[in-house]
Amino acid sequence: MDKETFKQYGYELVDWIADYFTDVEQYPVKSTAKPGEIKKKLPGNPPREGEGVDTIMNDFKEILLPGITHWQHPSWFAYFPANNSPPSVLAELLTAGLGVQCMVWQTSPAAAELEEVVMDWLRDMIGLPSGMSGVIQDTASTATLCALLTAREVCTGFETNVKGFRKPLRVYASREAHSSVEKGVKAAGYGRENLFYISTDESFAMIPSLLEEAVIKDKEKGFQPTCVVASLGTTSTTAVDPLEAIAEICRRHGLWLHVDAAYAGTAALLEENRDMLRGMEQADSFVFNPHKWMLTNFDCSAYFVKDPELLVRTFDISPEYLKTSFDEQVKNYRDWGVQLGRRFRALKLWFVIRSYGVKGLQNMVREHLRLAQLFKGWLEEEDHFQLMAPVPFSLVCFRYNDGVSSDEHLNKYNQELLERINATGRVFLSHTSIKGRYVLRMSIGQRTTEERHVRQAWELIRREADRL
Question: Full-prediction pTM beyond 0.85?
Fold first, then answer.
């Protein structure tokens, strides 16, 4: 493809994306494609000769687009948001065009130093302790794995990297912790049986006294308590573990404390939400995802550590071909995580923060919090709808409850209600299970969501409940 052809189709694609930003509301939020339907329309073998971009784009629109679930739709209320924004997309285009590989400082000094700057910005923007240092990981799952690996090495005097496990090491998290904790425990070699889940209170937050009880018992049994993962905004209900109390337990027993705020960390842009960070000065690591609720398209996960030397010592490998004369003067982020090869993720974060400013990002978060409280209020005014969890952020968990049916019957009813709601294509909600009860989740956080979209969703929910 020559320069002029690239420019022609580049302009056309930018036009299409710009139209998509404004027209996405016209699509059904959730794809109606059946399993295997898209695959059947695609040839089983690659073309022998190259094809034109017109042909490829036509197939994209006719075959692939019907199989897309539109996460950027203003009536996206499922899971958590995965926002993008025009500045972020423009930066991603630049990143792809530059095609740089950011494994060490020398491979692109601007990439390394910009990452250092924007991570310092982020740290200060959400109120983390000033001494913490940050690195951009791809996802919170990877960041949690990094924390588990570093905790493993610190606990064993960095011998596990060399000799492997010599004794069982224990990890603790609440029953509401994200599934990435279990996956990380398995990947890091702890073994699934050495992940101990701590029960939660009526707000679905970890009970600190039960954590300390478990740690003491494990010591008596000959286990080595190693790491605690505290959640600020759990996946099911956005429950907030009592960080200050957990941090004190970790201090007393010499445990690594990792804080998972993948979704809710963005809420700390607002000073009125920073109570949840009380105790962070005692935490060893922290993660939140700008690619969820901060307008930076996937993937961009902000991982912070109190002592970067421990992180680097865990991952540092220096083959001759990666050594440079600058290594003692700079940060080589290849040593700050699992990956050697790294994308230039800092560029889109820089574009977003500069384009919206701290105030613009705060205004967005504050509006989403307002809309969640508005929706919660509507629920509480209805006799046949039940709020199922506290609403500290912009997620509302609820179910239909007629007041007389059994939980078993209500589970089936609410499952069918969710299927009917999503089948309309007008909104998309997801579900969870809370103490055996099937619960609908209304997650408000899309960049273009307005009050009218939330109100339309509520009217649709009530109408489908009445019909069912």
Answer: yes
